Amino acid sequence: MSTPNLHPGLNLGTRHGAAHEGAETIVFGFWIFLMSDLVIFGLVFASYLTVANPMGMAGGPGPADAFDLRSVFIQTMILLTSSLTFGFATLAMRHEHGRKTIAVWLGASLLLGLGFLVMELRDFAHMIEVGAVPQRSGFWSAFWGLVPLHGLHVTIGCLWIVVMLVQMAVLGLIPVVKTRLLRLGLFWHFLDLIWVAIFSIVYLGGLMP
Amino acid sequence: MSNAILGRLDLASLSIWRAFENPTSSELIGAGAAMLVIVGGLAAVILLTWFRLWKPLWRDWLTSVDHKRIGIMYCALALIMLARGVIEGALMRTQQAFGLHGGFLAPDHFSELFSTHGTIMIFFVAMPFIAGVINYVMPLQIGARDMAFPVMNQISLGLTATGAALVMISLVLGEFSTGGWANYPPYTGADFQPGPGPDYWIWAIVLAGIGTTLSGINFVVTIYKERAPGMDFLRMPIFCWTVICTSIIMIFALPPLTVAALMLAADRYLDFHFFTNDLGGNMMNYVNLFWLFGHPEVYLLVIPCYGIFSEVISTFSGKRIYGYMSMVYATMSIAVLSFCVWLHHFFTMGQSASINVAFGIASMAIAVPTGIKVYNWMATLFRGRVRMTVPMIYATGFFYLFVVGGLTGVMLANPVISFQVHNTLFLVAHFHNVIIPGVLFGLLAGYHYWFPKAFGFRLHEGWGRAAALLWIAGFSFTFLPLYWLGLQGMPRRSVTFSDPAFQPMMWLALFGAALIVSALGCIAVQLWVSIRKRDQLAVPLGDPWNGRSLEWSIPAPPPAYNFAVLPQVSVRDDFAEAKADGRAYAAPGQYEDIEMPDNTAIGMIVCVCSTLLGLALVFWIWWLAILSFAVMILALIGRTFRVNARHVIPAAEIAAEHRAWLARIEAAPAVDRLEETHERNLGRAVLERPGRLEAAQ
Amino acid sequence: MTDPDHRSEARLYLAGFGLALTLTLIPFGLVHWRLMQGRALAITIAVLAVAQIVVHLRYFLHINLSRQKREDLQLILFTVLLLAIMAFGTLWIMGNLATRM
Predict the structure, then answer these.
(1) CB–CB of A186/C72 below 8 Å?
(2) Is A39 close to B221, i.e. CB distance below 8 A?
């Protein structure tokens, strides 16, 4: 019989005392915020789908002209791996393996996240070269609204990891730092979740024969 | 015309300068409004300095994270913006009364008026007022010490104030959008309105909207996680159930608005093609997204007011609410259904009949749970001993007028009828008919009902009665004629009209507007008189109305920590039952230290920075946009390094305060309902007919 | 009450990673090597995406039907419901308008 979860995501467990109890309210609140973010993404997705057709493309370049499936595949692998490394970071925190171990796994996630962004920016540069810019058509406006929105979230996540690394060093693993790491974990996994939808709907959907 | 330092701000941005260059009646009125803003702002600064109020203002209010203070500030913001909204409405009524022969307002000015009127009333009157009442009352009703996230609460207030500030500044600098409160593109796109107008709208509501979403999260988490021991969901007051439903809407309906507004911003700033006429833009998606927000929004407005009426009607009938469970189900159904009907706002815009009919049926379905609530309220009144206090006058007005508005809503839900009256004054009459008797009366009733709790003295009954009656009469004369005018074919948002047959109704509506302005005046006078007579109206013992829920079981005004000892709840309407059983006002066995959050300036920092950010974005002052955004983010991140921002209130202090209050209760006369509005009522109630109270569930 | 130790929890993460990896390789492979077309392919991709999302929720986010606090599950189901209404509604309305305009 395991202890019930107090909140979504990995729970710290009763060993962490006040941090675990306090996490219930805080993480629930963050979970709700993620749900509202999910609705935002959902609507941007739906809007994308309404213009993913010849009318929306207005005679301009289409997905086949601008998407690079191999690059997208690598980005997917990178992001998925970063979810795994972040999971290990959270596990290290739960099982009290020390700040250094947590920092290593967080650092790995950060590097992977940055790698994802670098590749994505290169993709965007290529798209600009071939004229697949938002000013060209409603379709590209929708694409550039959706995928960079996700990229912006990844950027915020990376920034947040940096702040957490600093906080862990400066403040130590006090309860509030732990609950922040829990929230960042939720956020990071959520990013990967949205990416699943992006690569499925936008890239695979766009490049389907 | 733009430069690096001031963006596209120049002399012609000043409405006063424009009036100077071109002194038409329209421009002069605009300049007059700008002067009012400037003079009002200066007067506030001067008065604060003269009475040395800056320090207390900063220490006790602007940096407070107490839900009670934040609630009061929200309500104060709402009432100030209500004054502007009413004046704009009266101005439009006046223009239309003289509209047959052109009137005195230019068409663009009229368009700006109806745009600001709608935007202000919904985003900066109704929503802050609701946030204020919920903020104040809900934690008290569930037996909590504060919201789950007090600092985020303060930030929400700051963001709302930012939006209001931007709308006020638009009177002085630049101008507001002329596209209505819904701001449809392509008319509001860069091609047709390159000026600052639509940008003001976008940033005001995006920034305020973020505040609202955060509030929704705060409210829900507070109710789910901070209830007092024994306060099960089914023991909560109905008002708290309506708070849950409202919060759900805040969380899920604001995202579509943010998406639509930011997409429009992308179109305007970055030449995107989300909603343009050409190159694959799809302007109907804006309409779709906006109303995905817009319809649940109006339920966000009215549902908490249903909750307020439930409290008011129950208290002033001396009975518990009839049909608690059906109320809960009805409220939840309304909340969920509200997400299923948004297309009825654009029946005429080209969809096939099947889609129209599907949404039409869904729209009519909402009338059913609403009807259930109305019948439950009526059953609550039935065989109760009803006291016609000011909140009950509003409730009575609500009963008659809201039902009419609801019925015209069912009419409009029929696509066939909607095609006839869409965008006529019939529609305008309908939504004012549900918003004023529903939302505004509810909020004013709540204001009168909970004011004594917040400030320790009642509001003057006489002026309150005058205000309520003037609102009822004023609303009726202003808006009921508009139904007829709409059926006769007069379009909405028209600065002039050409059919002389409309004239008499226009004059009737103007008369009604005069009554409404008087009603607002009475509310201002009521506040003034009440403050002057606060010693006679004092109710420090905390229970002036013989209330049933927990907020009435603490002093008025309550201490910062709300409850000296968290209540142990055993039953619905626990305080009423406690009074009946004789166990109310029991001294607790033991007092403990209470930890409360410290004050913080972060809300003010966010408010100032986001106002500057909004202005910078509107006027293309990019360096200021980047700077204010960076400062805000750095401040927020920096704040996270601050640990242990809490202070302890020692048990001895709490015990002393509490015992002193209990002693005053012992000594004071318990007052029955005949003396409710009498000076003798110090806030301690006697039960009049104990046998009448039915046993708790 | 005993908590699973670090190794078994880490194994769960690896299992989730493996499942997600598989559910990623399949659709990418199908598209890259043109193994399916049209509607069938679209549905396959969609189903695999939903499956992978469930994998993420279960293995990474620990959303567990039995051990979860009721409100956490209620929240995600409610969000999905509203999202479905909004997204489906948008597609239905905009699709209908597209055929008529």
Answers:
(1) no
(2) no
Mean pLDDT for the stretch of residues B193-198: 95
| Chain A residues within 8 A of C21 when measuring between CB atoms | 77, 80
- pTM (2 d.p.): 0.95
Contact A36 B281 (CB under 8 A): no
pLDDT tier at B200, thresholds 50, 70, 90:
very high
B598-614 pLDDT, tens digit each = 999 999 999 999 999 99
Mutate to test the interface with A, among B217, B254, B278, B629 (most CBs of A within 10 A): B217
Interface of C with B in 59-98 (CB under 8 A): 71, 78-79, 82, 85-86, 89-90, 92-94, 96-97
Is residue B62 within 8 Å of residue B70, measured between CB atoms? no
- Could you state, in order of their start, the residue ranges of all structural domains in chain B? 53-600+645-692
What is the number of domains present in chain A? 1
Could you tell me if residue A122 is inside a domain? yes
Residue B204 and residue B615 in contact, taking contact as beta carbons nearer than 8 Å: no
Residues B186 and B193: their CA atoms lie apart, in Å, by: 9
Contacts of B286 in chain C (CB under 8 A): none
Domain of A201 in residue numbering reads as 14-207
Q: Using CB atoms, pick whichever of C86, C93, C101 lies closest to residue B256.
A: C86
Q: What mean pLDDT is predicted for residues B543-563?
A: 95
Mean pLDDT across the stretch B405-413? 96
Q: Note whether A69 contacts C27, CB cutoff 8 Å.
A: no
Of the pLDDT bands very low, low, confident and very high (cuts 50, 70, 90), residue C62 is confident
> What's the mean per-residue pLDDT of chain B?
94
CB contact under 8 A, A200 and C37: no
pLDDT single digits (tens) A100-133: 999 999 999 999 999 999 999 999 999 999 999 9
How far, rounded to the nearest angstrom, does the alpha carbon of residue B643 sit from its chain's CA centroid? Answer: 34
User: Residue B668: how many CA atoms within 13 Å on its side-chain side?
Assistant: 25
State mean pLDDT over B201-223. 97
Give the domain B53-600+645-692 fold.
Cytochrome C Oxidase; Chain A (1.20.210)
Instruction: Give me the pLDDT at residue C4, please.
Output: 65
The ipTM estimated for the assembled molecules is: 0.95
**CA-nearest residue of chain B to A166?**
B641
Q: Is the pLDDT of residue C1 over 90?
A: no
Separation of alpha carbons B566 and B146, rounded Å: 12
Q: Which residues of A touch B (CB under 8 A)?
A: 24-25, 28-29, 32-33, 35-37, 39-40, 43-44, 47, 50-51, 55-58, 60, 134-142, 144-145, 163, 167, 170-171, 174, 176, 180
Let me know if residue A37 belongs to a domain. Answer: yes
Is residue C83 scored above 90 in pLDDT?
yes
* pLDDT value for B693: 46
pLDDT beyond 50 at B362 = yes
CA distance B23 to B401: 42
- Per-residue model confidence (pLDDT) at position B543: 94
Q: Give the residue among B182, B117, B81, B99 at the shortest CA–CA distance from B509.
A: B99
3-class state of residue C22 by DSSP:
helix
Scanning B345-384 for CB atoms below 8 A from C yields 349-352, 355
Judge: A13–C52 Cβ closer than 8 Å, yes or no. no
Residue C67 has pLDDT above 70, yes or no: no
- CA nearest to C78, candidates B249, B292, B344: B249
3-state secondary structure B378-400: HHHHCCCCCCCCHHHHHHHHHHH
Set of chain C residues whose Cβ sits within 8 Å of the Cβ of B289: 90
* Structure token pair of residue B104: 């005195």
The pLDDT, as a whole number, for residue C2 is: 42
Q: C28: which chain A residues are within 8 Å (Cβ-Cβ)?
A: 69, 73, 76, 199, 204
Q: Which of B428, B406, B676, B397 is nearest to B519 (CA)?
A: B397
